[in-house]
UniProtKB/TrEMBL annotation:
Keywords: Aminotransferase, Pyridoxal phosphate, Transferase. Belongs to the class-V pyridoxal-phosphate-dependent aminotransferase family. One of its GO terms (molecular function) is alanine-glyoxylate transaminase activity. The modification N6-(pyridoxal phosphate)lysine is found at K197. GO terms for biological process: glycine biosynthetic process, by transamination of glyoxylate. It comes from the Bacteria. Substrate binds at R346. This is Alanine--glyoxylate aminotransferase family protein. Its cofactor is pyridoxal 5'-phosphate.
Length: 392
């Protein structure tokens, strides 16, 4: 007979989910309201305003999709891409490949701009793609590539799309709340994210925002959106402001409580302060890792502070290290994906996971496990180096 499940208390320092603070977990336990209850409708309006703050946008079409980040991605593509369209897709990791999948499933053509894993999207290559394909109507790229720990220049890429009369679709799943993101300032048109990364909310919700140009394209579609559930013209009947809410689906009410609480916490800290905290803790982690004798997989200019790709030392068993960290220290870090599988670890410093306590735990545990494997590391050097950075 099955019994209730009581998970252990892990420290989550992988590529997501991140640690969920007690305030957010507590919000989940509040009494469930009906999804059309006037009090819940009022909460929906506040969630929308808080998402606009987090995205730095005044877009009216800003809402949390009741599904994980992959659904937010699909919502952007199915609403903006029609059969026969041509879309320039940038791939420098796993998630650019998922964008290609979405384009092709919409019956459109994906013009691929390829960059090496561990490198940012090349602005010059994208410019060449627009020159070769002037009929391309969209540009899709990942701002913060979770599979590699690389940041691309979203402002320049969005400007390039506008220069060529194209809309931009931007993956900010790992960037929202962790590094600078300025939807209106950059002129981004369709942006999607996730709740389980730098927002430190529970997984399962995808914030999205669409510019007025994107809304115009949605309203001018000649074909129905291929997904009924993700059709923004239908969803806005439920999430639209200053309208009588029309039933579309039953929102995950308690998960929305959690999202609201996480966004309130972000607003209390302040966006710039949150970005600075992620940057400071990243610098301390890197100092500790390098003092230990490890190296980073991404050039300093393009590193994500919230997702750190670390080169695995020669002769070290990747899976054995991660297993020991989990089983002996209740600490989760991530494996490399795709071309970087077995070559890198992905150490997350996202949201509530980005704090000094976690830094100390990670460096201490990693030094212990690597030492037990006989890795050629410098013991006793990591913590002093990290704390020196934190002390300023």
């Amino acid at each position: 007979m099955s019994q209730s499940f009581y998970p252990p208390q892990r420290t989550l320092m992988g590529p997501g989910p991140s640690d969920v603070p007690a305030r957010v977990l507590g919000a989940l336990a509040r009494p469930t309201l009906g999804h059309l209850d006037p009090l819940f409708v009022g909460l929906m309006d506040d969630i929308k305003a808080l998402l606009q703050y987090a995205f730095r946008t005044d877009n009216a079409l800003t809402l949390p999709v009741s599904a994980p980040g992959s659904a937010g991605m699909e919502a952007c593509f199915v609403n903006l891409v029609s059969p026969g369209d041509k879309v320039i897709v940038c791939r420098n990791g796993v998630f650019g490949g998922r964008m290609q999948e979405n384009v092709e499933r919409c019956g459109a053509t994906a013009v691929m701009v390829e960059d090496d894993w561990g490198q940012p999207v090349s602005i010059d290559k994208v410019a060449e793609a627009f020159a070769e394909h002037p009929d391309a109507s969209l540009l899709a790229f990942v701002h913060a590539e979770t599979s590699t720990g690389v940041r691309s220049d979203a402002a320049a890429l969005c400007a390039l799309a506008r220069e060529h009369g194209a809309l931009s679709i931007v993956d900010t799943v790992t960037s929202l709340g962790g590094i600078e993101l300025d939807v209106d300032g950059w002129g981004a048109d369709a942006v999607y994210s996730g709740t389980q990364k730098c927002l430190s909310c529970v997984p399962g919700i995808s914030p999205v925002t669409f510019s007025p140009r994107a809304v115009e394209r949605i309203n001018g579609r000649e074909h129905k959106v291929q997904s009924w559930f993700l059709d923004m013209q239908l969803v806005m009947g439920y999430w639209g402001a200053n309208t009588k809410r029309a039933y579309h689906h039953t929102a995950p009410v308690n998960a929305m409580y959690a999202l609201h609480e996480s966004l309130v916490m972000l607003q209390e800290e302040g966006l710039e302060a949150a970005w600075a905290r992620h940057a400071r803790n990243h610098a301390a982690l890197v100092a500790g890792l390098e003092a230990m004798g490890l190296s980073m997989a991404v050039a300093e200019a393009h590193r994500l502070p919230q997702l750190n790709a670390v080169n695995i030392p020669e002769g070290v068993d990747d899976a054995a290290v991660r297993s020991a960290l989990l089983n002996e220290f209740d600490l989760e870090i991530g494996a490399g994906l795709g071309a970087l599988a077995g070559k890198t670890w992905r150490v997350g410093l996202m949201g509530h996971s980005s704090r000094e306590r976690n830094l100390v735990s990670c460096l201490t545990a990693l030094e212990s496990v690597l030492g037990s494997q006989g890795a050629a590391i410098r013991t006793g050097a990591a913590l002093p180096a990290a704390k020196a950075v934190l002390a300023g």
